[in-house]
Amino acid sequence: MHTPLCRHATGQPREYAAHAVSLGLTEIGFSDHSPMPQDDFDDWRMRRDQLDAYVESVQAARRDFPQLTIRLALEVDYLPGQEDWIRDLAARHPWDYFIGSVHYVSGGWDIDNPKKLSEWRQRDAYAVWAEYFDWLTQAARSGLFEIIGHADLPKKFGYVPDRDCTSLFRTFLEAAAGSGCAIELNTAGLRKDCREIYPSRRILEMARERGVPITFGSDAHAPAEVGMDFAAALDLARAAGYTKCCRFEQRQRRIVPL
Question: Sheet containing 147-148: which strands, arranged edge to edge?
């Protein structure tokens, strides 16, 4: 879940928490886009000097809603060579988990940015997917993250290779299994052009075969999106053979039944 500090979400953490309570949820987590070493890296994340304000806003929601368990987290972009920066962020606050995500490929192209949709028409879809999954595999193998976010993000706008991607998925999932990293069922995909939860059922079944644990996320950018389509996500998890998921506290995993 995100906050206005990322510059493309609305509603304060208190409002997200209030909606969660109205749905009967008992535990939520905020994982806004982390800052980069340079504030002008892009225009869809908090600045470095806003990190403490982000933490305080989550802590304020905790105070206002003591009946709700609220986890403090970050969604952190993985780019090769940025590992020291991620470790620096990890040391700054008592985080409950880090979601590692890949939005960029080489050339500084954020593949899910609607402002740069035209770039897809100039690229070979398989080449983009291959580079994306290479970086996602590095993220999973790094040990820097508890969860990998929206694992097949390149499908967002419907650009799917006509070549078999099984080997890309397998390599990534074996890295996640080897490091004990979870993947999320992210329902925001249902609100995008792909109209499909991230990741696909095929990837999820491969993940279950390899013992990769799962979490659930709405990737909410507004209070009304909190917990959206979780029933569909649960159905997908069960269809793929999952009976358990995981939660995190102080970067320690706890397995719970679905």
Answer: 27-33, 69-77, 97-101, 147-148, 182-186, 214-217
Give the model's pLDDT for residue 254. 97
Instruction: Round to whole Å and give the CA distance between 158 and 71.
Output: 32
In a domain, 40, yes or no: no
Q: What angle do CA 149, 155, 160 make, to 5 degrees?
A: 140
Q: What number of other Cβ atoms are within 10 A of residue 57's Cβ?
A: 18
CA angle 173, 46, 13 (to 5 degrees): 85
- Angle of helix 201-209 relative to helix 166-179, nearest 10 degrees, comes to 40
Residue with tokens 């040990």, as numbered in its chain: 143
What is the count of structural domains for the chain? 1
Number of H helices, E strands in the chain: 7, 10
Residue with token string 């976010």? 149
Q: Whole-model pTM above 0.85?
A: yes
**How far is 58 from 14, CA to CA, in rounded Å?**
8
> Which whole number is the average pLDDT over 57-83?
98
Pairing of strands 109-110, 252-257: unpaired
What's the CATH code of the domain at 192? 3.20.20.140
Structural domain contains residue 177? yes
Average pLDDT for the chain: 98
Q: What percent of the chain has pLDDT over 70?
A: 100
Average pLDDT estimate for 218-232: 98
Q: Which residue has the tokens 């993947």?
A: 183
